[in-house]
Amino acid sequence: NAGPDQIVSENQLVILDGSESYDEENIDLSYIWTTPIGILLNDTTSSTPSFTTPTVDDSVDFIFRLIVSDGELDSDPDSVTITVFHTNISPVANAGPDQTIMENELVILDGTGSSDFENVNLSYSWTAPVNIELDDPTRSSPTFISPEVSDSTFLLFTLIVSDGELESDPDSVTVTILNSLGFISNIFPAEFELRQPFPNPFNPTTTIQFNVPVMDTRHVVSLRVFDIAGSMVETLVNGTMESGQYEIQWDASQHASGIYFLKMESGPSTGQGRGYIKKQKMILMK
To answer: CB of 203 within 8 A of CB of 284?
Structure first.
């Protein structure tokens, strides 16, 4: 007796029940379960084995067969059907890569990497920082004009997508706006370069200059500050940048005196090709 049929949802623990099998002579029975392809029971010789239902695209019937033996004779097989029905899975929001942009430029956010397991058309809901107006916060790729800033400014945008029934967890993207003074020259450098910050030692602000060369492929540039223990303490730049010479300032007033390392990294956005890594030592003396 393979037990009653069951109807269950995906990713649920199911316990088969062969305990009603019996022998006329009341001899202890041994159990052999046969499973559908792709289903793994925790013990095919138990009277009550279990398994976790798989993810399915639609309702699917899984048929299990049981044979019991008294040591001399096997029973005829009995079967049980476990029907697994599909349950909607929440979509996944992808707000796109972080970007670094100059003032007064068109910025295009990119939520096209968001996905839904059932391939249902998604609706989009972007949340922008105060005083930033997206052209259409319900589009997958809304736009805005980067504001004028007095210093490098980080804008955090949040995206939630919906399949009409369930909403995703929020995902966020950071757009760094550089003051126009940060772009000090439209001369196109031939190679990457991270210069020694000045002044150095400093208290509490130092100036950082770096070059981004002309490239055939888009490169993501990052500037990060690490303490003497190797822990990252601040991200100054992280995004795709145009070719040019740049100058930014690091205000370390929130950090303790000590030795810090400025690390510049760049690589092609495709993940293929040569990259650039350079470090500079900085001393904060308060």
So the answer is: yes
> Domain extents for the chain?
6-85, 99-178, 181-284
Give 202-243 as a DSSP string: BSSEEEEEEEE---SS-EEEEEEEEETTS-EEEEEEEEE--S
Q: What top-level class would CATH report for the domain 6-85?
A: mainly beta
Thinking of the domain 181-284, which architecture would CATH place it in?
Answer: Sandwich (2.60)
Least confident interval from 75-79, 249-253, 279-283? 249-253
Structure tokens at 204: 């509490």
Q: What CATH class has 99-178?
A: mainly beta
Residues 158-189 pLDDT 10s? 999 999 989 999 999 999 887 655 555 556 77
Burial class, 165, CB count within 10 angstroms (exposed 0-12 / middle 13-18 / buried 19+):
exposed
Q: What pTM was computed for the model?
A: 0.50
HSE-CB at 197 with a 13 A cutoff on CA atoms is: 28
With tokens 């210069």, the residue in question is 195
